[in-house]
């Protein structure tokens, strides 16, 4: 077979890579769920769970500065393998620490901090390869599959499976499953062909490191529509990271630390996301896609307000399911806009700039989410607290009432953000303002 034939986009190659990465993701989700239960049982604080996420995000701020250059100039196949290998090695180390009774909460923080950059590079390498591996008519389906179907399928299976296995084979057994799935993912990547982008004439020149580092920023600034979209994403991720940081703590506190309830709700959320992703994959999404982003945000957070106001597992499952149906609209619409507008040989540097700004927002939100819940909303909603007379009738005055109020308020901010997006012309018309790249 000729090399030019090998480099032709092939959806079957994408399916093979995606399927084994989903299997690996399932193992990782089971591990994350088990570690969340372990950390909550050890500490009982929202801050501890939000810090695990924070330590995973922080090193990505530095990595993102160089990620675009690395992805655009290095072999993307090797980067994907390194990401899987780093995650697998981390699971092995945690496994050994647990077996020898030396595992402590700071080990989890350290592990998250170390593997964060590798996972980030892996994500960049895979997401920027979509336009090379997949024919253009399948971009939306590929993005939906890589961003949502795999993730939400894992979210359905992993919580329930991990909740059962946690009490049968323990954390060490779940970690063993995780390690096996990483090995399978690496083996698959080793045997498939992932094309490299053809460098432009400018890329072939001796470009200074500073020019490469600032390329993505300069490219976005020159495209006012993309700049507006980036600023919108910064605000969006600031709000969402605060909700994400207390999500597990909120459910565990509100359900009396019941792992079965926690797992059922997480599975329902995953099922909703899968249904939404499958529907979007068949439908193809909005055109213009900005409607998928803005309407998805409005509908998702509107339902999450009902989710946070509820106090029954059945209502959490229903509202969590419904809210997640609209989540694929948000990120897939956003991703397809960027994939369609930015040439493949520039995507690494441009996407890294985009992720840098969203990552700056995420640690800020995560850093305040737990302390805000533990040190402000919790005491404020206890009997005699400053907010109890105002919101106590709606949320109660128990130990979890503060997080319920916090969840509701930030969900409401999410709804306002989506509505505001429709009043911003450069954001609303981004797909008209910025032309698609030429093949």
Task: Sum up the structure in keywords.
439 residues, mainly alpha, Growth Hormone, Chain: A, 20 helices, 82% helix, globular, disordered N terminus
CATH topology category name: Growth Hormone, Chain: A
Question: Span between N and C termini?
Answer: 24 Å
Structural shape: globular
Strand content: under 5%
Class computed from helices, strands and strand pairing: mainly alpha
**In this structure, how is the largest beta sheet organized?**
none
**Helix and strand succession?**
HHHHHHHHHHHHHHHHHHHH
Give unreliable regions as ranges: 1-6
Number of helices: 20
CATH architecture: Up-down Bundle
Q: What level of helicity do the residues show?
A: over 70%
CATH superfamily: MFS general substrate transporter like domains
In CATH's first tier, which class applies?
Mainly Alpha
What does this structure look like?
The model is unreliable at 1-6 (pLDDT under 50). Helix 2 runs parallel beside helix 7, helix 3 packs antiparallel against helix 11 and helix 13 (290-309) runs antiparallel to helix 14. The protein is globular, with a radius of gyration of 22 Å. It is mainly alpha-helical and 439 residues long. The protein starts with a helix and ends in a 6-residue tail after the last helix. It has helices at residues 3-6, 11-43, 46-73, 76-99, 105-127, 130-133, 139-166, 170-191, 201-204, 209-222, 224-254, 259-283, 290-309, 313-325, 327-341, 347-380, 388-395, 401-421, 425-428, 430-433. It contains 20 helices and no strands. Helices cover 82% and strands 0% of the residues. The chain has one domain (8-194, 212-433): MFS general substrate transporter like domains (Growth Hormone, Chain: A, Up-down Bundle), CATH 1.20.1250.
